[in-house]
Amino acid sequence: MRAFTYERASSIEAAAKAAASNPEAKFIAGGTNLLDLMKLEIETPTHLIDINSLGLDKIEPTSEGGLRIGALVRNTDLAAHERVRRDYGLVSRALLAGASGQLRNKATTAGNLLQRTRCPYFYDTNQPCNKRQPGSGCSAIGGFSRQHAITGTSEACIATHASDMAVAMRALDAVIETVKADGSRRSVPIADFHRLPGDTPEIETVLERGEFISAVVLPPPIGGRQIYRKVRDRASYAFALVSIGAVIQLDGTGRISVGGVAHKPWRIEQADAELPQGARATASILLADAHTTEQNRFKVDLVERTLGAIIAEARG
Ligand SMILES: Cc1cc2nc3c(=O)[nH]c(=O)nc-3n(C[C@H](O)[C@H](O)[C@H](O)COP(=O)(O)OP(=O)(O)OC[C@H]3O[C@@H](n4cnc5c(N)ncnc54)[C@H](O)[C@@H]3O)c2cc1C
Ligand code: SF4
Question: Rounded to whole angstroms, what are the CA distances from 223 to 33, 83, 248?
Answer without folding.
Answer: 33, 12, 8
